[in-house]
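Students often ask why we bother encoding 3D structure as a string. The short answer is that it lets us treat folding as translation between two languages. Here is a chain of 165 residues written in the first language.
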Amino acid sequence: MQWSDAYRIGVPVIDTDHQLLFALTAQLAEAREEGQTREVVGSVMNVLVEYIVHHFRREERLLQLVEYPELNEHKKGHRQLTGDVFALLDRWQDGKHGAADELVSLMDGWLAGHILGVDTRYKPWVEKTLSDKTGAKAAESNWAILEMDFQDWDTGVDDQRGLGN
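And here it is in the second language, the structure alphabet:
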């Protein structure tokens, strides 16, 4: 599965996150197809899972900033996927090699379904809310979104199982 403009939400930092999730999923599939070592596949899995958590935090922060009315429902979907990917990571760490392939399948389906079926629902809300804000308030909201960058992504997979509410 590959990124295309059909998946574009219109928030550059979120679109970039989504592109990276597509790329990391493809990298994991490629590592498995090429018969890479368990260490290499595990490393790609860890990075993918870390980035999933990072992206969810950033996206939820965006939706909180714009007071998206369906935020709690959106978070539930994130929590479900987070639980599923950590379960697969645990299975991989327990020696179940098929867990990597299951993670690729899960992400392929989830990326398309979630972005096109769920994330596109917040797009008009975000666009309207950010366009309604003027001057310093809009700049403050946009800056807060951009601040949720890699500095918040350095605690490691094991510390990110509890994403909060």
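Translate back mentally: Helices lie at 12-33, 38-65, 71-93, 98-132, 135-147. Keep this in mind for the problem set.
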